[in-house]
Amino acid sequence: MNDSFQQPGQWHNLILTPEHRPTNEPKTHIMSYMLKNLHPGGYYEAIVQAKNRYGWNEEKKTNNVNDNKCILNYSCVADNSLGRSRKYMELSGRPGSAEFYSPKWGRSAERYNLTWKIDSYPPLEEVRLLYRRVL
Fold it and tell me: Measured between alpha carbons, how far is 81 from 51 in angstroms, rounded to an integer?
């Protein structure tokens, strides 16, 4: 991809190679690519296709990207023989929701080690934990 602004209607074809994973690891491949030099306020569409030893996937996933003051809105549509699904995501720079890794039951009735993960591009400045007894 060159460093100039994208021309309307012109597709750029990139070939990305996923990391090699041992066969005992999860089968989900997470990949990303930074789209650069987008026209401010422009509306973009991205199509992702995947290939494995059995061939290319049936349907493309289309992402619509709207670049507006560092807030990106994505919509993803997947079609196959089982139906159609659409999901939306807003990229705002804010941290993601906490993903908890702690077991449901603790080892002690008085203590519980709560463990979580938060995805955030910029460093976190503050983390707030609220908890309460429910029963």
Answer: 18
